[in-house]
């Protein structure tokens, strides 16, 4: 499109959308997700730009981009990717138009989104105010309440003293879960089942949150027994259109972190699916959500569902949604960031029709026999599972790759797409068994056990699955 401005009237509101073409994208990230975004740029004819720390100077994500720049020299490996002023300077010095944050690192930092915009660049993600609101568990819950979305009973605000914690537990009953109010990634969480354990666990969770996130404030929720984790993928544009791309089931978790994800959620009652997806869209419209995002819910065995949080970014498991809907979420993110509307992209609710079943396994360089301790070193042999219906999203799976101890242990995401859950499981298990990785240990033996488990194949697992099945570790 050649327009620079588009005036729209939607209902009684007037919108004026600026159309700002994106010719180059810097990915403020590394590894697998950087490569995923570069591929999307490449297909759209957009120049891709990488940043890399000195530890990553030989990493493949650097070589997959059209240009790459060293960042954070003299800083520790993770801090290099968090250096906002330097990332902005690289963009300015090299005439880059837009920034994609990926997941992790700066992706949920509203100050980063704001700095990108203040520099006159396009941020490929939601508005900084929305990033901030959704990143704060308490503010996000308030938004959910205001939009009429059911939430888990919990504290109205962050709790900083054990007396407040005891009071909440006495009033709402046990079990409860303590969460870092300003944290994520399953860290700093504790489940408490006995009154006499409240105080001690509060202290521990508080200091864990303090050291991991720099703020010890906790948030207390009623613990839902045997929940399934079901989340709704959303896409919004600058004109206020929001669509959902159905749901994913991410119940297979270890220490509250996702290991295997799938779409759609197996055996989900259609009425519940409709209610969840429309609630998610309502919440997004309520906060003025644009770009890609996810609303996460917990569902109990009686069919009640409760909002837990919004991830205002692309997620690791976005791939399974792409497989069943045929929508490229990363390309859509770039297009809506330019100011193109969803209908112009051919993305309307009626046109999004899920087809088949997709599963993603996160293959990591972790040793299941040693309590998933990360392994490092040189990959001496690497052969991947491939073939019909298998997609591989990765960056360090090749012979000669050096797996360093500095970053996340994700090696490759294996995605299987087939007509239904059992055939997708068979395809995934077959592909996993084809892998040959020598030089570093991987979690593949564990994943093969999951894929061969009858409960998993039947689609009847909840978040207790891994804990309750120690034979999966053998
Ligand atoms: P994070 O931001 O760290 O990812 P979430 O709030 O998304 O944390 O929760 C991660 C996982 O922890 C959920 O998928 C679920 O398995 C578990 N969990 C979180 N809150 C509850 C709860 N109230 N009851 C039961 N399980 C919970």
From TrEMBL:
ATP binds at residues 137, 221, 256. The active site is at 313. Residues 21-471 form the Biotin carboxylation domain. Residues 141-338 form the ATP-grasp domain. It comes from the Eukaryota. Catalyzes a 2-step reaction, involving the ATP-dependent carboxylation of the covalently attached biotin in the first step and the transfer of the carboxyl group to pyruvate in the second. This is Pyruvate carboxylase. The gene is LOC115878399. The chain holds residues 13 to 486 of 1187 of the full protein.
